[in-house]
Amino acid sequence: MAIKGQKFKRYSETLKLEAIRLHVEEKWTYRQINEHFGIQDKKPNETIDAKITGTR
Predict the structure, then answer these.
(1) pTM (2 d.p.)
(2) CA-CA distance, 33 to 28, in Å (whole number)?
(3) How much of the chain is helix, strand and coil, in % rounded to 5?
(4) Is the residue at 41 inside a domain?
(5) Count of domains observed in the chain
(6) 4 in a domain, yes or no?
(7) pLDDT, tens digit, for every residue of 18-51?
(8) Which 8-state DSSP code applies to residue 26?
């Protein structure tokens, strides 16, 4: 749940597509992708992945 005044991070479309490409084609884990791009939370990757691949 969001906290009042909380700032949400936004990621560029190119970063999102590259993250999904790494996950699908290169078989990188979400943890590896997060460390590579400096993403704090793993949930954005799973959500983006689900939207692109049609799973969930």
Answers:
(1) 0.65
(2) 7
(3) 55, 0, 45
(4) yes
(5) 1
(6) no
(7) 988 998 899 998 889 888 988 877 666 666 666 6
(8) S
